[in-house]
TrEMBL record, chain A:
Residues 13-314 form the Dehydrogenase E1 component domain. Its cofactor is thiamine diphosphate. It comes from Nonomuraea harbinensis. It comes from the Bacteria. Coiled coil: none annotated. Pfam families: E1_dh (PF00676). The keyword Nucleus does not apply. The keyword Acetylation does not apply. Keywords: Thiamine pyrophosphate. This is Thiamine pyrophosphate-dependent dehydrogenase E1 component subunit alpha. The lineage of its organism: Bacteria, Bacillati, Actinomycetota, Actinomycetes, Streptosporangiales. CDD domains: TPP_E1_PDC_ADC_BCADC.
TrEMBL record, chain B:
The lineage of its organism: Bacteria, Bacillati, Actinomycetota, Actinomycetes, Streptosporangiales. The keyword Hydrolase does not apply. The keyword Transmembrane does not apply. GO terms for molecular function: oxidoreductase activity. Its EC number is 1.2.4.-. Residues 14-187 form the Transketolase-like pyrimidine-binding domain. This is Alpha-ketoacid dehydrogenase subunit beta.
């Protein structure tokens, strides 16, 4: 692909937003400001940013407990996401969702699910709505290698295929389902081969390369918009941190050397930054300026989150039902 | 023939399946965002979707595969993205295949996302008991869902109520579970079929199909029939029974229930669900908490026994509520137990 400068810089910007946002959450965790553990997408930024940039802000998206990267890459405001992680009133879900359950409907993010695999059919439903209403929108469905073994994925892929719904099933295969290597309890090495069983195209791409994921998802999105149905894209990637930051696993299940190799040789942001410089798409100054821009954005998000008040106790009793005329 | 007027009157009354057919057809005509999905729907196997495919087309009338979890989650997603789906799950026991979707997505998404989601979706399912279907098909599981905040639950006892409540449900921006008591399928409803396209019955408003002064008998779904039959028998003994039909379990019309019990001082609840943590249990607990001063006798539950449904007709019937069990309970709260 002949990479355009604007798109390349936007890829880097969104990857940096995920990385720096989550590095800030680590600091907040150690400062005792986070009410709970967080599941970090650090290491997986290229897969997420490439996929999201292949959609528009109006397209739908669902995701999972590793929740931050998806709405960030879809274009959500960082400050309201950060306030949500701190359980504040200014949070995107008013402090009622938290780290695993971000949702920002203003950018098509219909919500992340803490129950692994549970939001997959919700994406199919968004695709159904797009199909019936004829509005040309597409639903991007993030799930992990662990969810690949959930029964509801099977039902959802079959249903999306028989109705030719505009859905892109996107598997972030980060190699580890908590403590179990992906290949160990999954019948196939490449999850994408399962697409054949549902009569849809499946492809595995390098999840450390945002251009590779962008191209694969763009093709799937174009197919969906043509009314030809769903696709499965698998991005092979790696989670650099523990399953959840703050979760202490006594007996290490993966060699530190494995983690080190990925961090040193396969860091998606390092790789892409180098590529931009090598291909002359950006110079050092542009890359540094972008870094500074995102750092400032994240710092402002942290400040917004800290300044936001905690919700009033009554907030716990709101939003259970939609009530005509009531403010939300 | 003297029976002709009675037969004509009966034919003019609204049966359960007719009520569903009419409610769905009227609402689909009214709002093109309403779609209907279900297993064996296009062939109209269950009898409440006659002519729908011709009238509304294949985009809005869809047969579902045997994929309950995906069907329920998909309906939730479609509702969040602008449709107003009705899902015919046919038999209530099949809901168990989709439990995570009901609890984690349908019920919680609006709340967890701080009110961003609207969830205008209706799930219809029959309480398919009392007919030799055995334990896998014969559950009456609505109390399980009363324990899940965020859902609305209707259990109508007659055709006109079913129609009016279902139309309200389809227009509601919240998820509604519509439980249809299959023991009522073949019965005609009380009163004539409503002609009005805007025949809407609000949720949370009980009806009082029979007024009385001695005992309040609250019926759930098919339990209302047993309550009315028992009331008619007991009237011959000089006992005045008031029958209350909550019609919706979430929201529950607590003021109407408390007002009736304040008048009678006694209460029997007839609920086809299993006894433990039944709708009857919740009503009894509420009466003890909020209406204790009115009570002149213990609140009694007439429910199904905590037992799976056996196949043989010889075994099956005894576990459910019946007119005889209601009569016995009423006598007990009156202190005239025989």
């Amino acid at each position: 692909m002949n990479l355009e400068r604007d798109l390349a810089l936007e890829m880097l910007r969104r990857m940096l937003r995920i990385r720096l946002f989550e590095e800030a959450t680590i600091e907040l965790f150690h400062a005792g400001e986070l009410p709970a553990m967080v599941h970090l997408s650090i290491g997986q930024e290229a897969a997420i940013a490439g996929a999201c940039l292949a959609t528009t802000a109006d397209d739908y998206m669902t995701g999972n407990h590793r929740s931050h990267g998806h709405p960030i890459a879809k274009g959500a405001r960082l400050d309201r996401l950060m306030a949500e992680l701190l359980g504040k009133a200014g949070g995107v879900c008013k402090g009622k969702g938290g780290s695993m359950h971000l949702a920002d409907f203003s950018v098509g993010s219909l919500g992340e699910s803490g129950i692994v695999g549970s939001a997959i059919p919700v994406a199919v439903g968004a695709g159904l709505a797009a199909d019936v209403l004829g509005n040309g929108l597409v639903a991007l469905c993030f799930f992990g290698d662990g969810a690949a073994n959930e029964g509801v994925l099977h039902e959802s892929m079959n249903l999306a295929a028989v109705w030719k719904l505009p859905v892109v099933f996107f598997c972030e295969n980060n190699g580890w389902a908590v403590s179990v290597r992906a290949g160990e309890l999954t019948s196939v090495e490449d999850i994408s081969v399962r697409a054949t069983g549902y009569g849809m195209p499946g492809v595995t791409v390098d999840g450390q390369d945002p251009v590779a994921t962008y191209e694969a998802v763009s093709a799937a999105v174009a197919r969906a918009r043509r009314g030809e149905g769903p696709s499965l894209v698998e991005a092979k990637t790696y989670r650099f941190h523990e399953h959840a930051y703050g979760l202490r696993v006594k007996n290490s299940y993966r060699d530190q050397s494995e983690v080190d190799v990925w961090r040193q040789e396969r860091d998606p942001i390092d790789l892409f930054r180098r590529r931009l410089l090598d291909e002359g798409l950006a110079d050092e100054a542009a890359v540094e300026a972008l870094d500074a821009e995102v750092r400032a954005e994240v710092a402002a998000a942290v400040e917004f989150a800290r300044d936001s008040p905690y919700p009033e106790p009554e907030e716990a009793y709101r939003d259970l039902y939609y009530v005509e005329g009531a403010s939300t | 023939m003297s029976t002709a007027p009675a037969a004509a009157r009966r034919a003019a009354q609204l049966g359960f399946l007719q009520a569903i057919q009419q409610a769905q057809h009227e609402e689909m005509t009214r709002d093109e965002r309403v779609i209907l999905m279900g297993q064996d729907l296009r062939a109209n196997v269950f009898g409440a979707a006659q002519g729908f495919l011709e009238d509304f087309g294949p985009s809005r009338i869809r047969d579902l595969p045997l994929s309950e979890a995906a069907s329920v989650g998909m309906a939730a997603g479609a509702a969040m993205a602008g449709l107003r789906p009705i899902v015919d799950l046919t038999v209530a026991s099949f809901m168990f295949c989709a439990m995570d979707q009901f609890v984690s997505q349908v019920a919680k998404n609006r709340y967890m996302f701080g009110g961003q989601a609207r969830m205008p979706v209706v799930f219809r399912q029959a309480l398919y008991y009392h007919g030799g279907t055995a334990a896998h098909h014969a559950d009456r599981p609505y109390p399980m869902f009363m324990n899940v905040p965020g859902l609305k639950i209707m259990v109508p006892s007659n055709g006109p109520d079913l129609k009016g409540l279902l139309k309200t449900a389809i227009r509601d921006d919240n998820p509604v579970l519509c439980f249809e008591d299959a023991t009522l399928w073949g019965r005609r409803g009380r009163g004539a079929a409503p002609e009005d396209d805007d025949h809407l019955i609000p949720f949370g408003v009980a009806s009082v199909p029979r007024e009385g002064t001695d005992v309040t008998v609250i019926g759930i779904g098919g339990g209302v029939r047993h309550a009315l039959d028992a009331a008619a028998d007991l009237a011959g003994e000089g006992v005045s029974v008031e029958v209350v039909d909550p019609r919706t379990l979430v929201p529950m019309d607590w003021p109407a229930i408390l007002a009736s019990v304040a008048k009678t001082g006694r209460c029997v609840i007839v609920d086809p669900a299993n006894r433990t943590c039944s709708a009857a249990s919740e009503i009894a607990a509420h009466l003890v908490e909020e209406g204790f001063g009115s009570l002149r006798a213990p609140v009694l539950r007439v429910t199904s026994d905590d037992m799976h449904v056996p196949f043989s007709p010889v075994l099956e019937k005894q576990i459910y509520p019946s007119k005889e069990k209601v009569v016995a309970a009423v006598r007990r709260v009156l202190g005239v137990e025989k």
